[in-house]
Design a protein that fits this description.
Layout lengths: L20 E4 L12 H22 L7 H4 L11 E6 L9 E3 L10 H14 L6 E6 L3 E3 L6 H11 L2 E3 L7 E3 H14 L3 E3 L9 H11 L5 E3 L3 H8 L4 H10 L2 E3 L15 H9 L5
Parallel strand pairs: 1-2, 2-4, 3-10, 4-8, 5-7, 6-9
Length: 279
């Protein structure tokens, strides 16, 4: 199923000619409900973005309104266009710290498709058509889904939680927005790994969420041996345990970008995520 593009009613057609930035969010998850998921993944993660940006870069006569009429076909008639692509191929297994020397090693077709798209799209970049590829860690904020939502639910209802030493990189949505703003302002290009200034331990995240909701959780090491054993297994349980309790972080060197984008600290970011109306 082709991705849908929605146009805000207030988005004036006359403003289209001044577009200088395109942010590409579209991706196909591995569990997409189609008869042949690998074909959908290939189409959405590789073929469509490359077709879109290649034609955008090559064409100089197509009206920008065609961006919305013809899927992934447009031109950007400005002196310098900037394209941001949020990509997250599996570049390392859990229990790893990602450094400048870490080479991507996707462990499934989905991750490999994202990496292939990155490599091909970089070839389109030049002085007037800049491409930025972001590989953020777990992003969280108001209304977020995925791992953070699951941990938040545990923090609000569970009486116990494992106490395991680990470190994770995370990125609060407002810090990501500021990072993107600075990239646009500075006309950057290349591959970037933004993250919060602080590493996070899973148990500390759960404790912070519980405190916000005035709940007390007992943190115990009683499950540590079981979790350690499960992390070594190759099944679904092993992946879940590694995802929750393993190390997966960017080294500080990788994210040393000389950009002051971490405006919101960890604890405050969790407060804003859990109680957005009480900021």
């Amino acid at each position: 199923m082709a991705p849908k593009i929605y146009i805000a009613k207030c988005f004036l057609i006359s403003a289209l000619s001044s577009i200088e930035l395109c942010i590409y969010f579209i991706a196909s998850a591995i569990n997409i409900i189609v008869a042949k998921p690998w074909k959908a993944i290939l189409r959405i993660n590789i073929i469509l973005p490359i077709k879109f940006f290649a034609e955008s870069n090559a064409s100089s006569s197509t009206s920008l309104i065609e961006l919305f009429k013809k899927l992934f076909t447009a031109s950007f008639p400005v002196d310098e266009a900037l394209t941001l692509i949020l990509s997250k191929p599996k570049i390392a297994k859990n229990n790893n710290i990602i450094t400048v020397d870490t080479k991507p090693k996707p462990d499934n077709f989905y991750g490999d498709s994202k990496l292939q798209a990155e490599n091909r799209l970089r070839l389109l970049s030049d002085d007037k058509f800049k491409i930025v590829i972001l590989r953020p860690p777990m992003i969280y904020g108001e209304g977020c889904k995925g791992n953070y939502k699951n941990l938040s639910k545990i923090a609000r209802y569970s009486p116990l939680f494992p106490k395991i030493e680990n470190i994770r990189s995370m990125l609060y949505i407002e810090n990501l927005c500021e990072f993107i703003r600075l990239l646009i302002e500075n006309r950057e290009s290349g591959l970037f790994f933004p993250q919060n200034s602080e590493y996070v331990k899973t148990s500390d995240l759960v404790k912070t969420i519980a405190n916000i909701h005035k709940r007390k959780i007992i943190f115990t090491k009683a499950f540590n041996k079981i979790i350690k054993y499960c992390k070594k297994s190759d099944g679904k349980i092993g992946k879940l345990c590694s995802k929750a309790f393993g190390n997966l972080a960017y080294s500080k060197e990788v994210s040393d970008l000389n950009l002051n984008y971490n405006l919101i600290g960890f604890e405050e970011s969790v407060v804003r995520t859990e109680n957005p109306t009480n900021e």
